[in-house]
Specification:
Number of strands: 13
Largest sheet: 7 strands, mixed
Distance between the termini: 53 Å
Order of helices and strands: EEEEEEEEEEEEE
Strand content: over 45%
Helix content: under 10%
Oligomer: single chain
């Protein structure tokens, strides 16, 4: 920035290092999934999705609040459980105590949402394969400016548990709830 007079001529005391105050805040919520294998078997997780996410909203910069437009919701694809971040990467075997993430982290409109969370699950026991489609309905308190991580502990045939971690993007503080 250069200081000028009323005729746009530079004035004495030009300062090239003039600081301008700027504040940045994330307006959306980040959501991603992690899976950990707590069995002695190999597991695969694919087709990770949520349903019932808000489709449209308006953000008021003065009140710092979201307003949802209409009642339309959308389904969002998170890909497969893999260590690869490449698009459409195939699901990988998850070994005992290994943590694997979804292909994608997604940005969502914040707010308390009743979402449906689904994934396909395969567990390999020698030559036997156990397949299942898991579905959970959970109240997800998506907060603006926070990264939300849902960790699923794979414990075998239908005994999985879920831990929801909420971490502010610019912080290491973590709030954890278990379902």
């Amino acid at each position: 920035f250069v200081r000028t007079d009323e005729y746009a001529h530079p004035t004495a005391g030009v300062n090239d290092n003039m600081q301008v105050p700027f504040e940045f805040n994330h307006l959306l919520s980040k959501l991603e999934f992690e899976f950990t294998n707590e069995t002695n078997l190999y597991c695969k997780v694919s087709n990770i999705k949520i349903g019932n996410a808000y489709a449209k909203g308006e953000y008021n910069v003065y009140t710092k609040e979201w307003k949802y437009i209409g009642s339309e919701t959308i389904d969002i694809d998170f890909g497969n459980a893999t260590n690869s971040k490449s698009e459409n990467a195939a699901a990988e075997y998850i070994k005992n105590e290994e943590i694997v993430t979804s292909n994608y982290a997604r940005l969502l409109i914040p707010g308390g949402q009743d979402i449906t969370f689904t994934y396909d699950y395969e567990m390999y026991d020698g030559e036997n394969v156990y397949k299942s489609n898991k579905s959970y309905n959970i109240m997800m308190p998506l907060k603006a400016g926070y990264s939300h991580k849902i960790r699923i502990g794979l414990q075998g045939k239908g005994d999985d548990y879920m831990i929801i971690s909420i971490i502010e993007w610019d912080s290491n503080d973590e709030v954890i709830t278990r379902h």
